[in-house]
Each structure stands twice: as structure tokens, then as C-alpha cells.
Amino acid sequence: TPQDDRYQQEQDSPITRFQHYLRINTAHPNPNYTAAISFLKSQAQHHHLQTLTLEFTPNKSILLLTWPGSNPSLPSILLNSHLDSVPAEPSKWVHPPFAAVRSDDGKIFARGAQDDKCIGMQYLEAIRNLQAENFVPVRTIHVLYVPDEEIGGLDGWAKLVASREFEELNVGFVLDEGQASPGDEFRVFYADRSPWGLVIKAKGMPGHGSRMFDNGAMENLMKSVEVMSKFRESQFDVVKAGLAANSEVISVNPVYMKAGIPSPTGFVMNMQPSEAEAGFDVRLPPTADPDLLKKRIADEWAPATRNMTYQIIEKGPIRDYTGRPLMTLTNDSNPWWSVFKQAITAVGGKLAKPEILPSTTDARFIRQMGIPALGFSPMKNIPILLHDHNEFLKDTIYLNGIKVYESLISSLSSYGGASL
Ligand SMILES: CSCC[C@H](NC=O)C(=O)O
Ligand SMILES: [Zn+2]
Ligand SMILES: [Zn+2]
């Protein structure tokens, strides 16, 4: 009966497959990578893709799916996404974050709906549709699922790029995640900002809470915080004046402060601490000079003359192997860019001016190898909800994204094929 047919469709459709993936809780701090990988493997088998699991770290496998091209000697196309998500606070959501509820107006609510389980499944759906049309790729297509992007990728992409297995993939071009666009144009990213963790520590004389003296640890730390706030303001002013995008300046944001001994009774707080520290999230655009910032930190933010020490935690590369900033060219000197642009236009899509991503993704490890990579998630006319409460994606936007990837995959995998 028609009703049974509809039931059948609801049982297995692009949307239900997406919901299935979203219901696997891969949020930190305990991502269920095993369940996610076994689900994706079962999907890959339907699509007759080759599967390879790489385990550089126990319980943090990387899944590689491969659709061999008719000319496997050409550099391959790699479609990347990460398996993990950031945590969610269920009490602050309108629907549970791992139920993937679809509302009457088609919104699918889930942690990971935008970041980035959408693209992980859209790649597969696009391949499924191309296979149904008997499309044959010239270049080999790899679909990759990596752990730990959200926590820096040290056990994911950092290990993968250093491996023989990666070298053998002979990757020529990579598509990785981007960000949603509230407007009518798709956004595309040619670079990320580099993330530093900065910890500054102050030491000073301890003493009775009633005393006034110079060079206390708190005073020294607070002076630094003031200086850093001024710098932050100077960068933010440039953004507010419309002279640069958020992602084109250096951001410095305090993320924790630690000092003192809270009073057990809440009444007597009479200890001035001898140590105080603060942690900052620092992001550098590829155009920034890291050495200049290091000098500023040493001279102004945590000077030894104020009894201060500091630690910079550099999370990944900042220059490629030839010493150049990690940027993928978005002009016609990069043929992949031209193919990318044309494939978007071919499905009626408009592209916004290419941007630097304000945050950081695994693409930096790829660009470090000198491999061109674009950040792109086909979501437009939707709020940017990555890492936010009530993250959602609309069903129609998701389905349209599959069409966009069909165009991208067929164009990218055919590029250079005719001349050979
Ligand atoms: C230290 S790398 C951290 C990567 C992370 N990525 C997504 O949010 C980010 O904070 O941008
Ligand atoms: Zn992401
Ligand atoms: Zn994220």
C-alpha cells in the first residue's frame, strides 16, 4: 500500500540516515568513535566503497573510504570530515541534543548537525546518487573520517599527515568543513587562524589581606590583563571600523583565571596569594607575524621585570614546509579553485568572497603539506550554530547540499581527465 511505501521511505532515506549518524554520541569528552565508524562502514558497503581503518591511537581510529578512479595515477580528491563534536548542555536545548528530532518545519536538531556530521553524510549521499547515474570518476575519490578535530587533532590528522599511508593516497585537492551562511551566498574558506594557548603566571609577595604593598601576584597579573585588553581592543576596533574581518586580526580572549584560596566560611578572605595565573585563547591569521607577537608577550604581557613567566602552547603548524603562510590560493592560478567555482555555479549556487575561518580546523595540517584545501559546508540562509545550543540544520538545506556535492565531486574528479 502507499502507506507502507511511505513507511519504507521513512525507514531509509537521506534524512533518516543523517539522523542515524547524529544519534551516535561522538561528543567530547567521551566520543563513541567505534559506533560511528561501524555505522559509516555499513553505509560504505552499500556504496561498494573500499574501506580502510587506520589506528594510530587506540580507540581513535581513522576511517578511509575509497571510490577508485579510472585513472588512479592522477592525484586524488579527498573529502574530509571529523567524527567528533563538542559537548552539549541538554537542559539548554529545546530537543535533546542526540535525538536528532525533526520539527514540523523541517529543522533537524542535534549536536553536530552543522559541525560537521552534515558534510560527512552528504559526501556519501552524493556518491550514492552519482553511482546510480553510472558516473565513473577519473580521479580516485577518498572520503575520510577523523577523530579529535575539536580538541586539536594531535591524535587525528597530525598523525595521519606524517604517515606512509597518507603519502600513498597521493592527494591533489581537499574539501574540508566550512561554516553556515546566514545570507544567500555560500561561504568558502582558504585559510584558518592558528591557535595558541597562552598561560601567563605572576609571582609576588604573599601577605595579610589588610596590607597595601607593591608587586603582589594579583596586582602583577591584573596589570598584564589590562595591557592585553588594550591590545584586544585595538584589534577589535579595526573590525568594528569595518577595515578587517574578525578572522583577519589577532584575537586574544581570556578563558580562565586561577589564584587565591577561597575562604571556607565565605567570611574571612584575608590571604593575598603568592601566585596567580590566567589562560588565553589566541588566534593568529596567516598574515600575522608570530615572532612579533612572541616579542610582545615577552616584553609587555608577561615581562620578567614584573615577576612573570609564560607558556605558549602552539597547536599545530603555522607555516607550510617551504615556510609560507598556510593559505590556499583562490584565483585562477589555482586550477582547483576554478573547478570548484564552476561546480558551484553549475548548480545555481553563488559564492561569497573567500574568507579566512575565524576558528581552526584540520585543514591546517593538509595545507602544511602544500596540498590545496578549501573549507566548505553547503549551508545558506541559516544561522551559524556551530558549538551553540540548539544546533540545527533544515532538511531542505541538507538535501540541496547533496546536489552541490554531486556537482563538486563529478567536476573535481573529472578535472584533467580529458587531456589524458
Ligand atoms: C587547538 S585546535 C582547536 C580546534 C578547534 N576547532 C573547532 O572548533 C578550535 O578551537 O578552533
Ligand atoms: Zn568542525
Ligand atoms: Zn567545531
Automatic annotation (TrEMBL):
<feature type="binding site">
    <location>
        <position position="115"/>
    </location>
    <ligand>
        <name>Zn(2+) 1</name>
    </ligand>
</feature>
<dbReference type="InterPro" id="IPR036264">
    <property type="entry name" value="Bact_exopeptidase_dim_dom"/>
</dbReference>
<feature type="binding site">
    <location>
        <position position="115"/>
    </location>
    <ligand>
        <name>Zn(2+) 2</name>
    </ligand>
</feature>
<dbReference type="InterPro" id="IPR052083">
    <property type="entry name" value="Aminoacylase-1_M20A"/>
</dbReference>
<dbReference type="Pfam" id="PF07687">
    <property type="entry name" value="M20_dimer"/>
</dbReference>
<keyword id="KW-0732">Signal</keyword>
<dbReference type="Pfam" id="PF01546">
    <property type="entry name" value="Peptidase_M20"/>
</dbReference>
<dbReference type="GO" id="GO:0046872">
    <property type="term" value="F:metal ion binding"/>
</dbReference>
<keyword id="KW-0862">Zinc</keyword>
<feature type="active site" description="Proton acceptor">
    <location>
        <position position="149"/>
    </location>
</feature>
<dbReference type="GO" id="GO:0006520">
    <property type="term" value="P:amino acid metabolic process"/>
</dbReference>
<feature type="binding site">
    <location>
        <position position="150"/>
    </location>
    <ligand>
        <name>Zn(2+) 2</name>
    </ligand>
</feature>
<dbReference type="GO" id="GO:0004046">
    <property type="term" value="F:aminoacylase activity"/>
</dbReference>
<feature type="binding site">
    <location>
        <position position="387"/>
    </location>
    <ligand>
        <name>Zn(2+) 2</name>
    </ligand>
</feature>
<protein>
    <recommendedName>
        <fullName>Peptidase M20 dimerisation domain-containing protein</fullName>
    </recommendedName>
</protein>
<dbReference type="InterPro" id="IPR011650">
    <property type="entry name" value="Peptidase_M20_dimer"/>
</dbReference>
<dbReference type="GO" id="GO:0005737">
    <property type="term" value="C:cytoplasm"/>
</dbReference>
<feature type="binding site">
    <location>
        <position position="82"/>
    </location>
    <ligand>
        <name>Zn(2+) 1</name>
    </ligand>
</feature>
<dbReference type="InterPro" id="IPR010159">
    <property type="entry name" value="N-acyl_aa_amidohydrolase"/>
</dbReference>
<feature type="binding site">
    <location>
        <position position="177"/>
    </location>
    <ligand>
        <name>Zn(2+) 1</name>
    </ligand>
</feature>
<feature type="active site">
    <location>
        <position position="84"/>
    </location>
</feature>
<keyword id="KW-0479">Metal-binding</keyword>
<dbReference type="InterPro" id="IPR002933">
    <property type="entry name" value="Peptidase_M20"/>
</dbReference>
<feature type="domain" description="Peptidase M20 dimerisation">
    <location>
        <begin position="195"/>
        <end position="300"/>
    </location>
</feature>
